[in-house]
Specification:
- The structure holds 2 protein chains of 2 kinds.
- Chain A has helices spanning 3-37, 40-71, 75-106, 115-136, 140-170, 175-207.
- By secondary structure, chain A is mainly alpha-helical.
- Chain A has a single domain (3-207), classed as Phosphate transport system protein phou homolog 2, domain 2 (Methane Monooxygenase Hydroxylase, Chain G, domain 1, Up-down Bundle).
- By secondary structure, chain B is of the alpha/beta class.
- Chain B has a single domain (4-245), classed as Rossmann fold, CATH 3.40.50.
- In chain B, 36% of the residues lie in helices and 26% in strands.
- Chain B has helices spanning 42-48, 79-85, 100-110, 116-129, 133-136, 149-161, 179-192, 205-211, 229-234, 239-245, and strands at 4-13, 16-26, 31-35, 59-67, 70-71, 86-89, 167-171, 197-201, 214-219, 222-228.
- Chain B has a 6-stranded mixed beta sheet with strand order 6-7-8-3-9-10, sandwiched between helices.
- The longest helix of chain B has 14 residues, at 116-129.
- Classes of the chains: A mainly alpha, B alpha/beta.
- The interface between A and B is medium-sized, with 14 and 12 residues.
């Protein structure tokens, strides 16, 4: 292992992870913009972004495999590289989810979302941002806050669900719209779960303890 | 009961203290790896385990080293018996300038075995255990100095096994070997650990990870950390261990 080269590659890894995390955040925000403003262009950008996120994931994966092969990292270095390899799978999944959501949004004929879904988008976007910062700054406290924030997302999901039920009662003929909203809110709830998975790997990277 | 139990071991070469209050248990039928930068005391520690340091002028050792029930670190012990029980393999293969057969038979003969049938059996069995028999069975009476480096090292292992030891000490046994010969010795070590307790000094951390059950990290004569190998290399408890195995010094 050549320490100076490994340090440089670990820095590159952090930069790439930050970039991939920022892309995931943006995908969530674009989907939210599409839903809350009826902006189908924004939603279509989220679909395009999925491909970029996947490509970024592949380049991070190649970097990690190269480091494992050529530098044979140990201890905290090994944990950082192996955690990054696991994290990119969840991040790529977030990109896919944002894309799937956006496809639904573009087919909603400009119908807008409801406030509680907007809150879910804001919360999950914040979780993704926080968890990548936790990785880069090796901050277990922040990673644990992300894990705890998932309870808020779950509560928001329940609230969204009752709001949608209320809408169904008020307009029983508007079933397709209600189903779209339920699916979108469930997608956000899944993004929260992926952020929690990532937080688990961040904690592993710092402490060596694997989440149960 | 551990195969070897070392307690509060201190060693001086003249006025220089090379080992400082080292306590370490090494378990039966396990491979314990000793790692650390050059001059950290790991080879000195290894040599204490069969009192090789007795041969070094000005060397003084204090503390307890128990092999099974026997306290070995006291004057008057039976050194010949100790070195039968605790065999040693060195960095550079050092076959005697004799035939392959004589190299292996030498130890048992020194210990009084004269029956040629018994010696034949010991030689074959030892060479088999050292994964060398099939390669040399047709030239047992040819000079051992004609063997390749890897074969010569396995011959040295066979020579150590011939006197039925309990423990094998290996001091960087593959540092002079190519990757294929190294892989053979590593595989052999894993096989031998089913019957013997092995303590190995290595500079190759990947080797320690591949073959050892426990790893002990030495620095400047102190034992910094000993733990099961996976834990020590994935999340070491001490910052110094972390810094060493991640290449920040050493």
């Amino acid at each position: 292992m050549i320490r100076s080269r490994l340090d440089k590659e670990l820095q590159d890894l952090n930069t790439e992870m930050l970039a991939m995390g920022a892309m995931c955040e943006k995908a969530i925000q674009l989907a939210d913009k599409g839903l809350m403003e009826g902006n189908t262009f924004a939603a279509s950008q989220a679909v395009t972004l999925e491909n970029e996120i996947r490509q970024k994931g592949k380049s991070v994966e190649a970097l990690c495999l190269r480091m494992l092969l050529l530098q044979q990292p140990m201890a905290s270095d090994l944990r950082a590289v192996s955690a990054a390899l696991k994290m990119i799978t969840d991040m790529a999944r977030i990109g896919e989810i944002a894309s799937d959501m956006s496809e639904i949004i573009t087919s909603m004929d400009g119908r807008l979302g409801i406030l509680s879904i907007n809150d879910m988008a804001a919360k999950t976007s914040e979780m993704v941002s926080d968890v990548i910062n936790a990785f880069v700054h090796q901050d277990t406290e922040l990673a644990r806050r992300v894990i705890n924030a998932d309870d808020e997302v779950d509560q928001l999901f329940l609230k969204t669900r009752s709001d949608i039920i209320e809408k169904i009662i008020q307009s029983p003929d508007d079933g397709a719209y209600a189903v779209d909203l339920v699916m979108i809110s469930k997608y956000y709830e899944k993004i929260g779960d992926h952020a929690v998975n990532i937080a688990g790997w961040v904690i592993y990277s710092i402490t060596g303890e694997q989440a149960a | 009961m551990p195969a070897i139990s070392v307690t509060n071991l201190n060693l001086w070469y003249g006025s220089f203290q090379a080992l400082k209050n080292v306590s370490l248990d090494m378990q039966e039928r396990q491979i314990t790896a000793l790692i650390g930068p050059s001059g950290c005391g790991k080879s000195t520690f290894l040599k204490c385990l069969n009192r090789m340091n007795d041969l070094v002028g000005g060397c003084r050792v204090e503390g307890s080293i128990r092999i099974g029930e026997t306290e070995i670190n006291q004057p008057g012990g039976d050194l010949s018996d100790l070195r039968r029980r605790v065999g040693m393999v060195f960095q550079k293969p050092n076959p005697f300038a004799m035939s392959i057969y004589e190299n292996v038979a030498y130890g048992p003969m020194v210990h009084g075995e004269k029956d040629p049938h018994v010696l034949n059996g010991i030689v074959e069995q030892s060479l088999r255990k050292a994964a060398l028999f099939d390669e040399v069975k047709d030239r047992l009476h040819k000079p051992a100095l004609g063997l390749s480096g890897g074969q010569a090292q396995r011959l040295c292992i066979a020579r150590a096994l011939a006197v039925q030891p309990e423990i094998l000490l290996m001091d960087e046994p593959t540092s002079a070997l190519d990757p294929i010969a190294t892989a053979k010795i590593e595989e052999l070590s894993l096989q031998l650990a089913k019957e013997y307790s092995i303590v190995i000094v290595t500079h190759n951390m990947q080797q320690a990870m591949r073959i050892s059950d426990r790893t002990a990290f030495f620095l400047l004569g102190e034992l910094i950390e000993a733990n099961d190998t996976e834990t020590l290399f994935s999340h070491p408890a001490c910052r110094k261990t972390e810094e060493y195995i991640t290449g920040r010094f050493g």
